[in-house]
Write a structure and sequence with these properties.
The structure is a single chain. This protein is mainly alpha-helical and 226 residues long. The protein has a single domain, classed as Alpha Horseshoe (Serine Threonine Protein Phosphatase 5, Tetratricopeptide repeat), CATH 1.25.40.10. It is 72% helix and 0% strand. It contains eleven helices and no strands. Helix 9 packs antiparallel against helix 10. The two termini are 20 Å apart.
Length: 226
């Protein structure tokens, strides 16, 4: 489930992120999260090299590399947990979060940092115990809202998919944290996008006071695994 949810929200990165370092590693990480181990290893290797290379320490690539490498560590931690390897899973979980936190400190307004790490936190928060999941969810909401603020002036010019995924992420996050008024604000924005958003049924369900389903990776896709 973690993999499906992670892939679904990471699709958002394509149209919302600036075309920079993200372009070098995105497809390998997507393929890796779909099960292509070799692709994941490539992505992890490239990002680890950037992180470890002293020459890049003043480069904007460092923050994005940390965000993606951290997302990979979180994904690998999930694999460890599922096999019962709690010790190594916990170590990867902690390191992945530390890298993503550092990425945000280095580049707090870089969409290429905010989207990958928030996407991972949204997905991980669904599977983690509440005491671990809720802090991740709160950080993920904050990242997505920051992206929304950064892009508000031209948000309606972006593609339908990235707009709907961003709005749904924030709306669903607020619904899960027990903030119905904030959730309602974003579900209304989502409903205004109409059926092409792929989330109209969920928005209408929440606004009418009924529950809605999380569809995993069944988004209005813009990538395929290679």
């Amino acid at each position: 489930m973690f993999r499906k949810q992670l892939i679904a929200v990471l699709f958002t990165v394509t149209a919302l992120s600036a075309a920079r370092f993200d372009d070098k590693v995105r497809n390998d990480f997507f393929s890796g999260f779909f099960g292509n181990q070799a692709a994941l290893e490539r992505g992890m290797k490239v990002t680890a090299e950037v992180i470890g290379d002293a020459i890049t320490q003043n480069s904007p690539d460092l923050a994005e590399a940390l965000a993606w490498h951290g997302s990979g560590l979180m994904f690998l931690s999930g694999q460890k947990f599922r096999t019962g390897d709690i010790a190594n899973g916990t170590e990867l979980w902690i390191k992945g979060n530390e890298e993503m936190d550092r990425a945000g400190t280095l580049a707090p307004d870089n969409v290429g940092v905010l989207i990958p790490r928030a996407s991972v936190w949204f997905a991980a928060s669904r599977e983690a115990p509440p005491e671990q999941g809720r802090p991740l969810l709160i950080k993920a909401i904050a990242d997505y809202e920051r992206v929304f603020e950064i892009q508000k002036a031209y948000f309606d010019k972006l593609g339908m998919h990235p707009r709907s995924e961003l709005l749904f992420g924030i709306a669903d996050g607020y619904a899960r944290t027990g903030k119905p008024e904030k959730a309602k604000d974003y579900f209304n924005l989502l409903a205004d996008l109409g059926p092409a958003s792929g989330h109209l049924e969920q928005a209408n369900a929440y606004l009418s006071g009924t529950s809605y389903k999380i569809r995993g990776a069944a988004c209005v896709g813009c990538h395929t695994s290679k």
